[in-house]
Design goal:
The protein has about 325 residues and is of the alpha+beta class. The protein contains ten helices and nine strands. It has two domains: about 120 residues, Arc Repressor Mutant, subunit A (Orthogonal Bundle); about 160 residues, Aminopeptidase.
Length: about 325
């Protein structure tokens, strides 16, 4: 597994490459005759309608004198206009002129073509991951600059089948288990089959799937099979949390939903299989009452591993 230093260096390298590819090392940006800071000012004014010089200082991360010179240049070029008269110039609303809106349209067309060309190399699910990761990264950088905590979108827990969930759960498993323990096609196929098996029986009591959602993105899931192991026993299957959600309590929330459901359904025990070495998951299982019953070498996941069998008995 890469160290934190390795990951930070890789993110830095990717950031430098993106800055070069987007053209931030050139004196002008996005096919205009303007500097990157001027183009960003035009874009932000176009998105928000009106802004003040004070607003732009915070948004662009520039000092007051730099923003003042920038706005003078854009005003003289006929790109923006100042609304109102008198008072503190820093607090007067600014907006794009007709010329500024034409410039914005040209910038948008240029940028959409540039980003669209890169996006064409990704499948839709991959592109969603790229979008979410870049957004989180950008938000964290801004929060660090301002000295505030990054805003976190609320994660909601939903139940039942949703279109695409079988493939999405399998993809989440592979994103974690392929690099962590080297699982491949056999494991992915087994996960997809398990999700398909449970979701096909959701109309019968004792079977359920939970989905942790961040916006429209699946970031965690777990399923209970209430039929495959006999009366009174629930089989916990396909438990996974997106690695980017670490530390946000997603796994614990999913397991709490499972325990509540199984107790309400009257299951006397919940059983699960995992593999040795997944210490974080094992710790979470033990926190909610699972205990190791047995472990032995096995190959049901496609490669030799030490498989562990855990059971949680319903509290008396």
């Amino acid at each position: 597994m890469p160290t934190m230093t390795d990951l930070i260096d890789r993110i830095r390298a990717a950031s430098r490459q993106m800055a070069r590819e987007w053209g931030f090392l050139r004196p002008t940006l996005a096919g205009t005759t303007y500097s990157p800071s001027a183009v960003h000012a035009i874009v932000e004014l176009g998105r928000r309608g009106t802004l003040t010089a004070v607003d732009l200082v915070e948004l662009l991360g520039l000092d007051k004198s730099s923003v003042s010179r920038l706005l003078t240049k854009l005003t003289d070029a006929g790109e923006i206009t100042v609304l109102g008269s008198g008072g503190d110039a820093r607090c007067k609303p600014l907006m794009l002129t007709d010329k500024g809106r034409r410039t914005l349209a040209a910038v948008d067309a240029y940028a959409r073509k540039q980003v669209g060309s890169a996006a064409a190399h990704f499948a839709p699910a991959q592109l969603d991951t790229v979008c979410a990761s870049l957004t989180a990264y950008a938000d964290a950088l801004r929060a660090h600059r301002l000295g505030v905590a990054p805003a976190q979108e609320e994660i909601r827990i939903e139940t039942g089948y949703a279109p695409g969930v079988i493939g999405e759960v399998a993809a989440l498993h592979m994103a974690y288990y392929a690099p962590a323990v080297g699982f491949g096609q056999v494991f992915e196929s087994r996960v997809a089959a398990a999700v398909a098996d449970v979701t096909a029986r959701l109309d019968r009591p004792g079977n359920q799937i939970w989905r942790a959602m961040l916006g429209e993105r699946l970031v965690g899931s777990v399923a209970i099979d209430g039929e495959g192991m006999g009366p009174g026993i629930a089989h916990l299957r396909t438990f996974i949390v997106d690695g980017r959600m670490q530390g946000r309590g997603v796994g614990r929330r999913l397991l709490d939903e499972v325990l509540r459901y199984c107790d309400e359904q009257g299951f006397r025990e919940i059983h699960l299989w995992t593999v040795k070495g997944l210490d974080a998951a094992r710790h979470l299982y033990e926190q909610v009452g699972f205990r190791l019953v047995s472990e032995a070498p096995g190959e049901q996941w496609g490669k030799p591993m030490v498989e562990q069998y855990l059971v949680r008995a319903r509290p008396q």
